[in-house]
Every structure is written in structure tokens, then in C-alpha cells.
Design brief:
- This protein has 21 helices and three strands.
- The protein has helices at about 5-15, 25-35, 40-45, 60-75, 80-105, 110-120, 120-125, 135-150, 155-170, 175-190, 190-220, 220-240, 250-255, 260-275, 280-300, 315-325, 330-335, 335-360, 370-380, 380-385, 395-405, and strands at about 390, 415-420, 440-445.
């Protein structure tokens, strides 16, 4: 039953999987992930760059991606499918965990439709084509939720705690929100025995996450606290430092991109307001608490982005599936759709493979401004190991690190080989400029 949504997701991932370019965060995160496994254990623990420490984000997502890169890049080179593979696997973990959670609460038919809704949601599957901390966070949170609901055993409680702890090591403090929402659901659902297990899971989660945080505070007391809790947490919530969007940003995103599932979800919401879904009280409580809780918390923050809502779409898909299975017209519920659904998985994979083999353009090509630099990395790989950057551009530095295995440190105009990232930078008249465009390399490789 769970195979169909996973196969559909795989088919969507295969289409154009080796096309494109690691833009912005994906380039930075790819470079950091490769660097984590290229040096000492300190580089792995801290994600220390060649000239500065990186603790903007916790290290878990970089550890996961870097492990795949350390094995696959030496074999195949820095291909885009390698960069995207860990995100696909994390999305599959999230999908499997959530559909089984739905199965336990609402039954197999609802779980199948909910799984298809998630797999085909644009704002979910598109992040299998990037390095997304939010997808990593969703995978761990949904595994934790699955473990808590699936079993009352000590093993399941420990697994939930480990998953929530890994979530705390993925994005600064954000995993505390779903943990709190789960406590609210347990209280509302009057499950006192569940509260004891949730407290135990929380203890395990902090045991997993605290050592790294304490190590950073001890090693870099001022810098870490200012960046991690100040710039990356408080500033994103309360200031416009990282951008500011209106409070209705996420409802607008959902209305624009959540098609066709917007229709059954909206109809399910209407049925709910009319007093329906009485047999699905547990499911409705979970859906309401997690979807509204996430949306409220994300909307309060001044920093908003479509990728943050990855946490919300699974619960919206659950409501859409409930309407389709419980309340849709008879001709929908008893039609031949179930037979067709069985073929969707294999068909999706075959279509994805066909698009991959025929190389139909899905993603934009490598930007022209990067082509000379990537050509130089092929022609003069040793020179790229000496390259410095002025002024420092973290996203560009990380992208170079992805392609070369080395994140270039900050340099100056007097460096032997320096990449100039500022188009308006005035260069000495006798400077030996190797490439032009947005990037200029000054020196002799």
C-alpha cells in the first residue's frame, strides 16, 4: 500500500534529476557537507570552514548529505543526482512514516490517498531536488510522531526521542514546536499514559541534542550565542534582517500552489465545520493542532519562505484524504479509481525514467556566469585548491566547494589566485584577469 506514493515521488524526482545547478542554499550546504568529511573530526563536529567556523545551523543535515557525498562523489564526480539523492531518501522516510501514522489512525484507504497527496504536492516534491533543511526536519519529526503513535513500547519511545533529538540538530530550536504540539494533542485527547511516554521521549531528545549545543557554547560562548540564538532564531522571528513578508504569506502560497488537493481539503474543512468526521476525532485533533500550530508559528515570524511550509502539507493532505474516502459523492468513493491508483506508482517511475533518458529540459541550465569557472575546475583542478575569494560570498564559496571539494577561504587583491565576486570591484591595471563576467579570477593558475 505504501509503495504507490513512494514510487510516484521517485518518478517525479527522476525527471531531470541530473540537470540544473545548486542555487543559493543548496550550493552553500553542498560545499559545507563535502567539507565536513574532508578534514579532521573537528571539521565534522563543527562544520568548520577553511577560514571560519560555521554554526548558523546545527550539523545533522550536513552530516547526512556529506556521508553520501563522501562515498559517491569520488566514484561519479559532483553530479546533481548525487546532491539530490539524500533529499529524496529523507522525503521517502517522511512519506512512509506519515502514511503509516495515517493508516493507524484513519485506516489504509485514507493513508493511501494522503500519501499520494503528499507525494504530488508541488511544495513537497520540489525540495527533493535541493538540499533542504526543512525536508530533513520533516523526516525526523514525522518519524518521531509515527513512533509515538505506533507503539507504547520503550523501544518506540526511545526511537521517538532519538528522532526528535535529530530534529533539534537540524534547525535551531524549531523541533521544539512539533514536540509541544504533540503534548497539546495528548492533553486534548486525554491520554495520560501518552504524556509519560512523551516526557520520556523529550528527555531522550535533549540527551541527543544537548551535547553539540553545549560544546559550541563552551568553545565559542559569545560568537555561537549571538549567531545561533540571535541572528538565526530571534532575528528571524522578530526583525526584518532575513526578510519580511506579510502575515498572509502562507495562506497565499497554499491557495496558489496546493492544487488539485486544495479542492478536497477545502471541502473537508467545510464538512468539519458542519460537524462531520465524528468517527475521526483523533485524526481531526492531530490535523488541526499540527497544521494550525505550524501555520500560526510560521506566520508570526517575519522571515517567511515557501520551504518552511513543508511541515504543514502532510496534515492538509490527511484532511483531503478524509473527505475523499469518508464524504465524497458515492461515484468518487466507489468508482474505479482504486484500480487505477495501483498503476500510478509503476507508471510514474516509467515516465520519470523516460524523461531522464530523453533529457527533456526540466531544470534551468548552469548559469552562464558559472561556466568559465567550472571549466577551469576541470582544466586546472590543482589551481582551484589554491583559490581564495574576495570579498567572501558564502553561497558562491559553498558552490565552489561542492564542485572542487574545497571551500575557498577569504583572500585579498594581493593573493596569488583570487576570485573576485564583486562585479564593480576596481582591479589594478596590470592584473592578470583569467575569466570575466560576474566572477573574475585574478592571478596565474
Amino acid at each position: 500500500m505504501h509503495a504507490t506514493p513512494v514510487l510516484v515521488l521517485l518518478g517525479l524526482w527522476l525527471a531531470g534529476v541530473n540537470q540544473g545547478f545548486p542555487h543559493v542554499d543548496s550550493g552553500l550546504y553542498a560545499g559545507l557537507s563535502r567539507h565536513a568529511y574532508s578534514g579532521s573530526i573537528w571539521d565534522w563536529w563543527l562544520l568548520a570552514g577553511p577560514d571560519q567556523d560555521y554554526f548558523n545551523k546545527p550539523p545533522m543535515a550536513f552530516w547526512i548529505h556529506g556521508a553520501f557525498f563522501a562515498v559517491l562523489v569520488p566514484l561519479f564526480g559532483p553530479e546533481m543526482w548525487i546532491l539530490r539523492l539524500p533529499s529524496l531518501l529523507l522525503a521517502m522516510v517522511a512519506l512512509l512514516a506519515f502514511t503509516d501514522t495515517v493508516r493507524q489512525v484513519s485506516g489504509a484507504r485514507v493513508a493511501l490517498i494522503a500519501g499520494l497527496a503528499i507525494a504530488t504536492t508541488i511544495e513537497f516534491f520540489r525540495y527533493t531536488k535541493a538540499i533542504s533543511l526543512d525536508m530533513t526536519l520533516a523526516a525526523f519529526v514525522l518519524v518521531g510522531l509515527w513512533a509515538m503513535i505506533r507503539s507504547t513500547s520503550k523501544r518506540a519511545t526511545v526511537l521517538a526521542g532519538v528522532a526528535f533529538g535529530a530534529a533539534l540538530l537540524t534547525k535551531p530550536m524549531l523541533a521544539l514546536l512539533p514536540m509541544g504540539l504533540f503534548f497539546i494533542w495528548l492533553v486534548w485527547d486525554k491520554r495520560r499514559c501518552g504524556l509519560k511516554r512523551a516526557i520520556a521521549a523529550t528527555v531522550v531528545a535533549f540527551a541527543v541534542a544537548v551535547p553539540w549545543h553545549v560544546a559550541m557554547i563552551v568553545s565559542f560562548p559569545g560568537a555561537f550565542l549571538d549567531e545561533y540564538f540571535g541572528s538565526q532564531a530571534v532575528a528571524r522571528i522578530a526583525t526584518a534582517k532575513h526578510g519580511a513578508e506579510p502575515w498572509y504569506y502562507y495562506p497565499k502560497e497554499i491557495a496558489e500552489f496546493y492544487w488539485p488537493w486544495m479542492v478536497p481539503m477545502g471541502l473537508g474543512f467545510i464538512v468539519l465545520l458542519m460537524g462531520g468526521f465524528k468517527r475521526d476525532r483523533r485524526a481531526i485533533l492531530l490535523i488541526a493542532i499540527f497544521s494550525l500550530g505550524w501555520l500560526l508559528a510560521l506566520s508570526i515570524s517575519t522571515d517567511k519562505a515557501s520551504r518552511y511550509a513543508v511541515q504543514v502539507y502532510p496534515f492538509m493532505g490527511w484532511l483531503a484524504a478524509l473527505w475523499l474516502i469518508r464524504s465524497a459523492p458515492v461515484w468518487i468513493r466507489r468508482g474505479g479509481g482504486r484500480r487505477i491508483i495501483g498503476y500510478l506508482g509503476p507508471a510514474g517511475v516509467m515516465v520519470g525514467l523516460a524523461l531522464l533518458v530523453t533529457d527533456v529540459r526540466i531544470h534551468k541550465p548552469v548559469p552562464d556566469e558559472w561556466l568559465p569557472l567550472l571549466d577551469l575546475a576541470v582544466v586546472a583542478p590543482d589551481a582551484m585548491q589554491e583559490l581564495e575569494m574576495y570579498p567572501k560570498d558564502p553561497a558562491a564559496a559553498g558552490t565552489i566547494g561542492w564542485y572542487t571539494g574545497r571551500v575557498p577561504p577569504a583572500g585579498s587583491l594581493s593573493s596569488d589566485l583570487v576570485l573576485i565576486t564583486d562585479e564593480d570591484q576596481h582591479l589594478p591595471e596590470d592584473a592578470a584577469v583569467i575569466t570575466t563576467g560576474r566572477f573574475q579570477i585574478v592571478g596565474s593558475p
